[in-house]
Automatic annotation (TrEMBL):
It holds the Pfam family Sugar_tr. Keywords: Cell membrane, Membrane, Sugar transport, Symport, Transmembrane, Transmembrane helix, Transport. GO terms for molecular function: symporter activity. It is found in: Cell membrane. Its main location: membrane. It comes from Actinoplanes lutulentus. The keyword Transmembrane applies. This is Sugar transport protein. The keyword Transport applies. It is a multi-pass membrane protein. One of its GO terms (cellular component) is plasma membrane. Residues 1-172 form the Major facilitator superfamily (MFS) profile domain.
Length: 177
């Protein structure tokens, strides 16, 4: 959940603001691109969730976390290159984030008696601590003259997410308890 939250906040909160602030892309255009990326997630997430029912959650999580790491640096470079580059980045990254079927994966780790509480605490902490801090960390990096390090931060989160996915059990085919 941490990677999903970090990636979401860096790509759809920090990046439009950063590109606008640096004068690369007007804010309205940057936010419009973000909306298109969010719509892409809305379309791909259910489709990829269905695929995870058949192929397994762990497999999609591994592919998704690796894809975030592989696409982060060239994606941020593409996004900063032009409004069209940002548009392509948002659509591709929206599709990649659709691979992160982490919410259902985490839900299946908890017994039914505490499932909602387990997901709520996990999601809440990951979103507040990791996702909520991501734009702040990115702004601090940019203000320190290291804006190019922001996608490296995302790569580091993706590496941690990939390690977690590789060591996690498959949950898709287990009976719910």
């Amino acid at each position: 959940m941490a990677l999903l939250s970090i990636a979401f906040n860096l790509c759809f909160v920090y990046l439009p603001s950063h590109l606008s602030t640096t004068g690369s892309i007007p804010l309205a255009r940057a936010l419009s691109g973000a909306v298109l990326g969010l719509l892409t997630i809305a379309v791909t997430a259910p489709l990829l969730g269905r695929l995870s029912d058949r192929a397994g959650r762990r497999r999609l999580l591994i592919v998704g976390t690796m894809a975030v790491g592989i696409f982060a640096i060239p994606g941020f470079t593409l996004a900063a290159s032009s409004p069209g580059g940002l548009l392509v980045f948002n659509v591709v990254f929206g599709g990649v984030l659709g691979l992160l079927v982490v919410t259902v994966f985490v839900a299946e780790l908890f017994p039914t008696a505490v499932r909602a509480t387990g997901v709520a605490v996990t999601y809440g902490v990951a979103t507040a601590v990791f996702g909520g801090m991501a734009p702040l960390i990115a702004v601090l990096m940019a203000n320190a003259g290291a804006a190019n390090a922001v996608p490296i931060y995302l790569v580091a989160a993706a590496v941690a997410g990939t390690i977690a996915a590789l060591t996690a059990p498959e949950t898709a085919f287990d009976d719910l308890r």
